[in-house]
Amino acid sequence: MFELLGIPPQALFGQLLLGLINGSFYALLSLGLAVIFGLLNIINFSHGAQYMMGAFVAWMGLTYLGIPYWGALIVVPLVVGATGVVIERLMISRLYHLDHLYGLLLTFGLALIIQGLFRNGFGVSGLPYSIPSQLSGGTNLGFMFLPNYRAWVVVASLLVCFGTWFAIERTRLGAYLRAATENPTLVGAFGINVPRMITLTYGFGVALAAFAGVLAAPIYSVNPNMGADLIIVVFAVVVIGGMGSILGAILTGFGLGIVEGLTKVFYPEASSVAIFVIMAIVLLVKPAGLFGRTA
Amino acid sequence: MNFKTATLAGLAAMLMTGSAMAVDVKLGVLNDRSGIYADLSGEGSVVAARMAIEDFDAASKGINVEVISADHQNKPDVASTIARQWYDEEGVDAIVDVPTSSAALAVSEITREKGKIFLNSGAASTDLTGAQCAPGTAHWTYDTYALANGTGRAMVESGYKNWYFLTADYAFGHSLEANTSKVVEETGGSVVGSVRHPFPGTDFSSFLLQAQASGADVIGLANAGGDTVNSIKQAAEFGITQAGQALAGLLIFITDVHALGLETAQGLVLTEAFYWDLNDDTREWSARFSEEMGGSKPTMVHAGVYSAVTHYLKGVEAADSKETEAVMDWMKSNPSQDQVFGEGSLREDGRHLHDMYLFQVKSPAESAGDWDYYKLLSTIPAEVAFMPLEDGGCALVE
Predict the structure, then answer these.
(1) Which domains does chain B have, with CATH numbers?
(2) Span B156-172, pLDDT tens digits
(3) Concatenated DSSP letters of B23-83
(4) Do residue B195 and residue A125 have CB atoms under 8 angstroms apart?
(5) A207 in any annotated domain
(6) Which of A10, A125, A264 sits opposite B258 (nearest CB)?
(7) What percent of chain B has pLDDT over 70?
(8) Residue A125 in contact with partner chain B when CB distance is under 8 A
(9) Residue A8 and residue B260: Cβ atoms within 8 Å?
(10) pTM of the prediction?
(11) CB contact under 8 A, B263 and A130
């Protein structure tokens, strides 16, 4: 049997696919961040906590109210998105005239509070959430056993990413949004309610995080730290893709998932650092990120 | 001697003991209060320490004990800073618990430097009582040798001979892998490979597939806490266990089993120093613990804190002082006896010896409800559960 770089090709394909699956989460989360940063200029540090809330609300829905997984996929982003709307109205909207740093500090503080509350209520060991029966089991692809649920994660993530990109870059609503970011006064003069649009955009970004949280609940343990561990990597993804670039966030999300997957084969000890090394290199060569526009 | 002198002598003796028995002791419980080991140590260890103080009735024996606690975030540098501050400024006499081997080794060094006492319950590395042993350090609950010797041996003996390790990339994982490899090879098995994953991790599917590709009979999980939970969950998801490979969770706490659910965890073989449902004593103690901890049962780390603090306080009482050498001497030369571990002893290298237990996780049908998780496979006697004194390489041993 021939080998590629010392690894049998079957194993390599398997690892590439796994990278793609992890990339799905990076893409979904960095997409939400990019939407919020691109349109609100807020660095949303509570994104990881909102992703965690997504998983927890799904668990609570199932445990206390009997809402199944499929219902949770729709209800949870709405519920968590609504909390995002409240946060934007009550707090974030007061910071738009200030430096970025204040938004960052506020959302970081919120993240710590939310995580602390969940930690107090549920402990850190995690809660079990089972894979929906329709997606349990898996398919043998010859080179690896692909759990059906993971395949669904990739598909769902691609659909949502494409939908979001399309809505922002190719529809009239998206055009309003982008225009409102460029010049809110002028857009307001045309009779469009700019503050409400901005609020809903934040709510949408948060809903994306919650959606990723629901997707993650059956495969990672549902625990209060799940977002904190992930969000640092996701920020690196956004920086590499270019702050605020929608397409950049999606492509780098998937791409870095694959790169990380490969590191896990060739030099597993470095897999948690690989993304940051790439970030450092990209920042040196192209400070605005791979897909960013230099302001 | 006439009656008068005898009475006076007796009175004097009583006065002396009375006045000397006012000792102020400060214990610092240092562990993970927010990260992946917070449920297995965390606040529960503080509760266990307080229970030990109350059960010992320290106040009426003239020992005033104060307990403080802090979060070391599983980071050796944070642990070192807090340990120094506690010893230098807060007047802490003994540091208790400290899970995460790398942090525990750091605290042990500082304890040596400051001439204080370190009662470790949460960490696993055998180095604490081996190459890096210290006069004031006692390693109480378990270690990587005991785990390897329990679970590793049991698995090889039931026919799982070829091993592949999934190892957390820090002191604890390395130590556990090394110890288990040794046991596996001694009992006639072999190690076909290993992969080291970053700590803490989230996605283990990549490593699990590498383990699967190795064709080993069993995948040894040399990690802990949330990492083990995720590894086991994902091994089930990727059909690894269904395809015939077994999993050996080398360090699994009851809180991990609780998080996994019996559906996923059933059948796992594991080694622990304590289980709440072992006997009347452990049941009674655990019920009291549960009451203070909102219903959750104690882990062996919590039980170890209770046992260690109890023995320490007896040492302070007997030595009539909190002076490190006197207390440690007493602790090492007298057997320990408490409600959770029963009888035990503290060896000269600082290793605490007590029985260990090999358990198997029940299936959902066998379990009577929440926290009814283990069935006892065998008891590993204290004499063989831990690494022989001469193999540790501790410099305190002549």
Answers:
(1) 22-142+278-354 (3.40.50.2300), 145-272+356-385 (3.40.50.2300)
(2) 998 999 999 999 999 89
(3) EEEEEEEEE-SSSTTTTTSHHHHHHHHHHHHHHHTTGGGTEEEEEEEEE-TT-HHHHHHHH
(4) no
(5) yes
(6) A125
(7) 95
(8) yes
(9) no
(10) 0.84
(11) yes
